[in-house]
């Protein structure tokens, strides 16, 4: 019996590359959906590779509105998904992977979410990991028997297998918006230009980068929803874990160069749910800093500028415009707009090359950093400049650590194993802890000429939102 010719309400887009054993099970699961088959279509994009096993796998989709696109050679998941989305006939896109075995009401839940006025623009579904212990239940189609908790189950994006109560994490939901189970409108997808195809064949990050752009294209607020019952199971298949991690790290670094902002700076070092926690924590502190006009650069610039090793400086704080800094000076000032010389970063993974600066000066802003981030900031700054000045004024906000002489002296001693540390009082300013590398880093053995450093600075800036949301 042929399916009706009415337009589908939902299009499932799935790339596949040499995993027909997974695709067969996933297509079989889609034939068991509670959403009637005439209401959705399935677009499978075979991304090159061997065709062995695919005829049998595709036969498992009998009864579905199934279309198969064949790419002559492998292009990567971004290209494959874009090709599928371009051919989609429905106003709603659901992205699954070929190894995303779906529970029976998965598509019905995605459609119901987007049919409800006021719901967020993107729905993230759950993905449970399984091992061989739960494979028999999958093969038998018994989704209720599949574990939701460690050791054989659980969504690995969350430390406990489940997100925290409250949903605050959804304000940065794009960080874990992976395309093994996620949906959005075709219009939103087209508006942002689809997946970034420059990632090519390398593994990972293309989905996070896409949904970062989706989030930025929408009004400020919570643009992601999560449905723990819109569930898929990640089917076991061969992975080169070491290679995948290396490629993913390189892709995070590539994206961080495109978007020099706090979120991507964190994602070069911390992934998943923990990255969301850190991002939201620092966002709140930065908002507090800007609201209170704390961390003023001006007094430090007036009293320290003549004491620095050179003119190639990075100033971290607020009030750049009133500080009298030269136009060529770099700054991380959240109260000022992003531009060629101002970025909204913490400094834990800055995009400037080693040895490209003479000094890094943080005015009170360093007092917001948790200990791991403070250590990262100091290490990264010493690579950039070889000289770091931590200024502690008498000003304070509830989010700052203490800056009394005893605390600062302990910090001086704690850093002494890695660098020379000098604590002094600067009249009219406060305490200044100056840290200098014991020996030049390999990349900073010689100073980079000013014109070379300028060329190395990132020019592809993230599209602007408000200064505190960037």
**How confident is the prediction overall: mean pLDDT?**
87
Order of helices and strands: EHEHEHEEHEHEHHEHHHHEEEHEHEEH
Q: Which stretches are poorly predicted, pLDDT < 50 over at least 5 residues? A: 441-470
The backbone outline, from C-alpha atoms, is: elongated
Q: What distance separates the N and C termini?
A: 53 Å
Rg from alpha-carbon coordinates: 26 Å
* Biggest beta sheet attributes: 8 strands, mixed
Percent of residues in beta strands: 15-25%
Q: Given the structure, what is the number of helices? A: 14
Helix and strand composition category: alpha/beta
Binned, the helix content reads 25-40%
Strand order of the largest sheet: 3-2-1-4-7-6-8-5
Number of strands: 14
């Amino acid at each position: 019996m042929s399916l009706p010719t009415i337009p589908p309400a939902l299009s499932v887009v799935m790339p596949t590359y040499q995993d027909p054993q997974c695709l067969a099970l996933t297509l079989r699961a889609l034939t068991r959906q509670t959403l009637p088959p005439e209401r959705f279509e399935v677009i499978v994009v075979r991304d090159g590779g061997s065709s062995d096993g695919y005829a049998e796998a595709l036969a498992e989709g009998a009864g579905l509105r199934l279309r198969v696109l064949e790419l002559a050679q492998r292009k990567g998941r971004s290209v494959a998904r874009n090709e599928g989305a371009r051919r989609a006939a429905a106003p709603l896109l659901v992205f699954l992977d070929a190894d995303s075995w779906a529970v029976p009401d998965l598509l019905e839940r995605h459609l119901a979410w987007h049919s409800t006025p006021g719901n967020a623009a993107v729905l993230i579904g759950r993905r449970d990991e399984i091992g061989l212990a739960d494979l028999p239940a999958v093969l038998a189609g018994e989704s209720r028997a599949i574990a939701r908790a460690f050791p054989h189950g659980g969504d690995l994006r969350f430390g406990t297998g489940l997100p925290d109560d409250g949903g605050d994490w959804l304000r940065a939901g794009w960080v874990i918006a992976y395309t093994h189970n996620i949906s959005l409108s075709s219009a939103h997808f087209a508006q942002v230009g689809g997946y970034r195809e420059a990632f090519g064949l390398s593994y990972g990050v293309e989905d996070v980068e896409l949904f970062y752009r989706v989030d930025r294209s929408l009004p400020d607020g919570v643009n992601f929803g999560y449905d723990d019952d819109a569930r898929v199971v990640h089917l076991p298949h061969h992975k080169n874990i070491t290679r995948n991690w290396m490629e993913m790290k390189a892709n995070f670094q590539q994206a961080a160069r495109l978007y020099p902002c706090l979120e991507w700076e964190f994602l070069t070092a911390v992934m998943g749910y923990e990255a969301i926690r850190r991002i939201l924590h620092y966002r709140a502190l930065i908002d507090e800093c800007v609201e209170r006009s704390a961390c003023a650069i001006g007094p430090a610039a007036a009293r320290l500028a003549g004491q620095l090793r050179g003119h190639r400086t990075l100033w971290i704080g607020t009030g750049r415009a009133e500080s009298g800094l030269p136009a060529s000076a770099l700054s991380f000032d959240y109260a000022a707009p992003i531009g060629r010389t101002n970025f909204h970063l913490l400094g834990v993974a800055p995009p400037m090359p080693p040895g490209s600066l003479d000094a890094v000066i943080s005015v009170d802003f360093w007092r917001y950093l948790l200990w791991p981030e403070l250590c990262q900031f100091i290490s990264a700054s010493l690579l950039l400049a070889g000289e770091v000045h931590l200024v502690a004024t008498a000003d304070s906000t509830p989010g700052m650590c203490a800056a009394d002489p005893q605390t600062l002296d302990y910090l001086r001693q704690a850093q002494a194993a890695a660098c020379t540390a000098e604590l002094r009082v600067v009249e009219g300013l406060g305490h200044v802890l100056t840290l200098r590398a014991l020996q030049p880093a390999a990349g900073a053995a010689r100073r980079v000429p000013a014109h070379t450093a300028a060329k190395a600075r990132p020019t592809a800036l993230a599209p602007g939102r408000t200064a505190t949301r960037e």
